[in-house]
Design brief:
263 residues; 8 helices; Nucleotidyltransferase, domain 5; 5-stranded mixed sheet; 10 strands; 2 domains
């Protein structure tokens, strides 16, 4: 049985195609202006990679920032549920999941069966999101995907006092003009982001093991800073790209629904 999970976020769109519980293909694209078009493109790429067409899909689930505008999916599901399911599939020992997306941050606590017990969600302020890092990377004229590598060369973190993205950007520019090392500024930014998100996680109760999902989880500097802020190591999502965690969870839910329908 072939199923599809589609996660359309504010910055990227992801899709995962599965057959009988195994991943056949997946794709990621930079989101375009209309979520519906982002969804169409990433679905087409994913199915093409598997040598399939939309008619071959028995069930599909959409999630993410733009889930209500994804065409051709059987149903939609919340990001909370999908990220929890994806993380638990990758590592059944996970009890806390932290997800940092382009425009929001989430923390959820799972029970022994992978069900979401509690969660906290922030989409009101960009300071704890991927957008925060994107703005700061632009201010420093550093590629976003090089921030983690740059922070690893830092000798000390520069303290960033402002949480608001607008004021933090001004603070970063001031620090540059005062001669602060870019690597130290980036490390400070990572700590500022991690502390913000750790507070969100602590509000639901941090229970080991803790996993980190979302595109920001690819930034080694944020991984280290978040681990320090939470006071524990973060466990890997075995065999799963953290940026695909939501799409994977959606595909797994689609597999469940398809099985229920067949029964």
């Amino acid at each position: 049985m072939i199923v599809l999970g589609v996660d359309v976020g504010s910055l990227t769109a992801k899709a995962v195609c599965m057959k009988d519980g195994k991943i056949l293909s997946q794709a990621l694209i930079r989101a375009v202006t209309r979520p519906s078009e982002s969804a169409r493109q990433v679905i087409a790429q994913t199915l093409s990679a598997a040598g399939l067409s939309l008619e071959d899909v028995a069930y599909s689930v959409g999630t993410g920032y733009g889930r209500k505008q994804i065409p051709d999916v059987t149903e939609t599901e919340s990001e909370i549920t999908c990220h929890g399911r994806g993380a638990f599939y990758a590592n059944p020992g996970v009890r806390t999941v932290v997800d940092i997306g382009g425009q929001d941050a989430k923390a959820l606590r799972l029970d022994a069966d992978g069900n979401v017990e509690r969660y906290s969600y922030n989409d009101k302020c960009a300071s704890g999101t991927g957008r925060f890092l994107e703005v700061m990377a632009d201010a420093l004229d550093v590629p976003l995907d090089k921030l983690g590598e740059l922070s690893a060369t830092s000798s000390r973190a520069v303290r960033i006092s402002n949480q608001c993205v607008v004021f933090a950007e001004t603070e970063v520019i001031t620090l540059v003009n005062q001669g602060a090392e870019p690597a130290d500024i980036v490390r400070g930014l990572h700590h500022a982001l991690a502390n913000r998100v750790a507070a969100l996680a602590k509000s639901v109760g941090v229970t080991p093991s803790v996993a980190f999902s979302g595109g920001v989880a690819k930034n080694a500097g944020v991984v280290l800073a978040l681990s320090e802020a939470l006071g524990c190591e973060l466990v890997p999502l075995d065999g799963v790209d953290p940026q695909f965690c939501g799409a994977l969870g959606a595909a797994l839910i689609a597999m469940d629904r398809a099985g229920e329908k067949a029964a």
